[in-house]
């Protein structure tokens, strides 16, 4: 493992979505963000973030920019990858309520339901228990037409759950499987850096 203060080169998939926000979070934590649009931008990266946005557009653009297969190779390479919201959908092995033919990069043994929280939470600013993300205060969690994790494989760890209303069932909204991390919510649009810090610790652990 390398020293935590090393300047990791962390890519942010820059086709669409909350790209600037993730770049800003990485800057704040002393990492070196690299905007990824083409497969050559994935060279020499220590980790990668797939931002929130719109997964149906993202996978189409990834094909249009001819970067889809290279992204898939990266995700399965053992380096750390974090997907927020649409990024979670991109990392899921299985999706529900996708559009016809929608492909994902896969890697996370989960089934994710798109737009699962429904219209009431097209947008909701809430909090989740921070758990392994650390700290004593609730973690801000912004949901924007967010997916939830419907089921997880045996190697997947659920890091956070959220109850939309006191009557509704708790749903998994942050999961990890080895080098892959995904959240239904968008920490990049808040000023709380616990999720990004947790991810950079993963980068340190999985850098090759
Ligand atoms: N609903 C979007 C999708 O399916 C995700 C929304 C988001 O990333 N905020 O990709």
Automatic annotation (TrEMBL):
Annotated GO CC locations: cytosol; glutaminase complex
Keyword field contains Hydrolase: yes
Pathway: Cofactor biosynthesis; pyridoxal 5'-phosphate biosynthesis
EC numbers for this chain: 4.3.3.6, 3.5.1.2
Reaction equation(s) it catalyzes: aldehydo-D-ribose 5-phosphate + D-glyceraldehyde 3-phosphate + L-glutamine = pyridoxal 5'-phosphate + L-glutamate + phosphate + 3 H2O + H(+); L-glutamine + H2O = L-glutamate + NH4(+)
Keywords of the record: Glutamine amidotransferase, Hydrolase, Lyase, Pyridoxal phosphate, Transferase
Residues given in the record as L-glutamine binding sites: 53-55, 114, 144-145
CDD domains (UniProt xref): GATase1_PB
Active site: 85 (nucleophile), 186 (charge relay system), 188 (charge relay system)
Highest taxon of the lineage: Bacteria
GO biological process: L-glutamine catabolic process; pyridoxal phosphate biosynthetic process; pyridoxine metabolic process
PROSITE patterns: GATASE_TYPE_1, PDXT_SNO_1, PDXT_SNO_2
Aminoacyl-tRNA synthetase found in the keyword field: no
GO MF entry, a single one: glutaminase activity
Similarity remark: Belongs to the glutaminase PdxT/SNO family.
Purpose of the protein: Catalyzes the hydrolysis of glutamine to glutamate and ammonia as part of the biosynthesis of pyridoxal 5'-phosphate. The resulting ammonia molecule is channeled to the active site of PdxS.
NCBIfam families per the UniProt record, alphabetical: PLP_synth_Pdx2 (TIGR03800)
PANTHER family per record: PYRIDOXAL 5'-PHOSPHATE SYNTHASE SUBUNIT SNO (PTHR31559), PYRIDOXAL 5'-PHOSPHATE SYNTHASE SUBUNIT SNO1-RELATED (PTHR31559:SF0)
Oligomer status and interactors: In the presence of PdxS, forms a dodecamer of heterodimers. Only shows activity in the heterodimer.
Name this protein carries in UniProt: Pyridoxal 5'-phosphate synthase subunit PdxT
Organism whose genome encodes this protein: Mobiluncus mulieris ATCC 35239
């Amino acid at each position: 493992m390398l020293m935590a203060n090393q300047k990791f080169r962390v890519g942010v998939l820059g086709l669409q979505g909350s790209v600037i926000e993730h770049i800003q979070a990485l800057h704040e934590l002393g990492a070196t963000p690299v905007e990824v649009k083409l497969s050559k931008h994935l060279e020499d990266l220590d980790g990668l973030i797939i931002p929130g946005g719109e997964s149906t557009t993202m996978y189409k653009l990834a094909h249009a920019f001819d970067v889809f297969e290279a992204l898939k190779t990266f995700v399965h390479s053992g380096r750390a990858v974090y997907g927020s919201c649409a990024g979670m959908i991109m990392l899921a092995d299985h999706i529900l309520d996708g559009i016809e033919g929608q492909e994902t990069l896969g890697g996370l043994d989960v089934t994710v339901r798109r737009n699962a929280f429904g219209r009431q939470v097209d947008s909701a600013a809430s909090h989740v228990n921070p758990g392994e993300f650390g700290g004593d205060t609730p973690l801000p969690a912004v949901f924007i037409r967010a997916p939830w994790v419907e089921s997880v494989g045996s190697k997947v760890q659920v890091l956070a759950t959220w109850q939309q209303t006191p009557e509704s069932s708790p749903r998994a909204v942050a999961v990890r499987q080895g080098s892959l991390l995904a959240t239904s919510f968008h920490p990049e649009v808040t000023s709380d850096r616990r999720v990004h810090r947790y991810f950079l610790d993963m980068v340190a652990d999985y850098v090759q």
